[in-house]
Write a structure and sequence with these properties.
alpha/beta, seven-stranded mixed β-sheet, two-stranded parallel sheet, globular
Length: 243
């Protein structure tokens, strides 16, 4: 695992920061955190606390209607920690905060600007919520100085209502990505879908070829539904276990 891993972990505890790497118990955490300037170390920081206002069925993060208030020191502390780690690439993501007027967009943007001020060489990706379709929030982040704007559609159109929180949908997600591109045309946008939830090849191809999707880079990954969360109705979804 190495010294860099331990340095990251200790700093996270000291500054009360959260990572998806830990919350999701990612098996690749040692590899990602163990690198350095020349080993391309990466980390995914989860902003705005560890409690989400939504309840997507694939996710194991805690949920609540009214999570604790934002930590005003988090943007500064996050930038301070990342600058000290010697990372080459960092992903800033967050829980959904539908309880906030802007969904936490300004908090996100402050974190990016703080980070870029301290470490201009670090590449910053923001994996954002959909902000309930509020494009002004999308614009706030798109113009914050980030390098990659990411937002996940999560699954094919036909499975959206079985996999994601009812407040999310593929058209709203695509509008987020589309607006980020419109606001900053040279910005790299990225989205991801999960495989292994019962989708067909035809549905995958339709998602890739759909209107407004061809300009975004796609990543694919399989997922095992969390055993402690309600699974999708078995009469509607066939789960495919991939070795």
């Amino acid at each position: 695992i190495g010294k860099n891993y331990n340095k990251l972990k200790n700093t996270l505890r000291d500054l009360n920061l959260h990572t998806v790497c830990e919350e999701a118990r990612c098996p690749n955490i040692g590899e990602c955190w163990g690198g350095g300037e020349h080993a391309t170390a990466t980390a995914t920081i989860m902003l705005m606390g560890d409690t989400c206002t939504r309840g997507c069925r694939f996710c194991s993060i805690k949920t609540a209607r009214n999570p604790p208030p934002l930590d005003p020191d988090e943007p500064y502390n996050t930038a301070k920690a990342i600058a000290a780690w010697g990372l080459d690439y960092v992903v800033l993501t967050s829980v959904d905060r539908d309880d906030l007027a802007d969904g936490g967009a300004e908090h996100f943007a402050k974190t990016v600007s703080n980070l870029k001020e301290r470490s201009p060489h670090i590449l910053v990706e923001c994996l954002t919520p959909d902000f309930r379709g509020d494009l002004s929030s999308v614009e706030t982040i798109a113009l914050s100085g980030l390098d990659v704007y990411a937002h996940n559609v999560e699954t094919v159109r036909e499975l959206q209502r079985y996999v994601r929180d009812p407040r999310a949908n593929i058209d709203q997600s695509l509008s987020v990505l589309r607006h980020a591109k419109q606001v900053k045309p040279g910005l790299l946008t990225k989205t991801s879908i999960m495989l292994g939830l019962g989708e067909t090849d035809t549905q995958i191809h339709a998602t890739l070829k759909g209107k407004h999707t061809h300009t975004h880079k796609y990543l694919f990954y399989s997922w095992k539904m969390d055993d402690h969360k309600p699974s999708n109705p078995t009469e509607l979804l066939e789960f495919l276990h991939q070795e």
